[in-house]
């Protein structure tokens, strides 16, 4: 069974930085897109950033210019570098990995990011 292990969340002051990592294991298929989403209590999960197999990236307007998504395909790992963090970035962050064919998606367990003002 596919496992996604996230790390790097925590508490940081506004203006600070964090780097999230998500390592996928027990992968028996080719990975397509990888991405990060976030969700606050009572709200829908929303896209933060995604990266295709070819390296094309997409960002939410609220994070563009502050966050950078990258991937190491050899390690089946996706990263999210978060700079200039704001209190409104406080959420649980989830990584998502999709199969290249068929589109089946897998989710990580989530990691808490808290930005204090």
Please summarize what this structure is.
This protein is an all-beta fold and 117 residues long.
Structure commentary:
The chain has 117 residues and is mostly beta strands. Helices cover 0% and strands 56% of the residues. It contains no helices and eleven strands. The protein has strands spanning 3-7, 10-13, 18-25, 31-39, 46-51, 57-59, 67-72, 77-82, 91-99, 105-107, 111-116. The strands form two sheets. Strands 2, 4, 5, 6, 9, 10 and 11 form a seven-stranded mixed beta sheet that branches. Strands 1-3-8-7 form a four-stranded antiparallel beta sheet, with no helix packed on it. The termini are far apart.
- Compute the number of strand runs: 11
Query: Which series of helices and strands comes N to C?
Result: EEEEEEEEEEE
> How many helix segments?
0
Spatial separation of the terminal alpha carbons: 40 Å
The stretches of 5 or more residues where confidence is low (pLDDT under 50) are none
How much of the sequence lies in strands comes to: over 45%
What structural class do helix, strand and pairing data support? mainly beta
> Helix amount, in percent?
under 10%
> Main beta sheet, described?
7 strands, mixed
The dominant shape is globular
User: Radius of gyration over alpha carbons?
Assistant: 14 Å
Whole-number mean pLDDT: 95
Record the SSE blueprint.
Blueprint: E1 3-7, E2 10-13, E3 18-25, E4 31-39, E5 46-51, E6 57-59, E7 67-72, E8 77-82, E9 91-99, E10 105-107, E11 111-116
Parallel strand pairs: 2-11
Antiparallel strand pairs: 1-3, 3-8, 4-5, 4-9, 5-6, 7-8, 9-10, 9-11
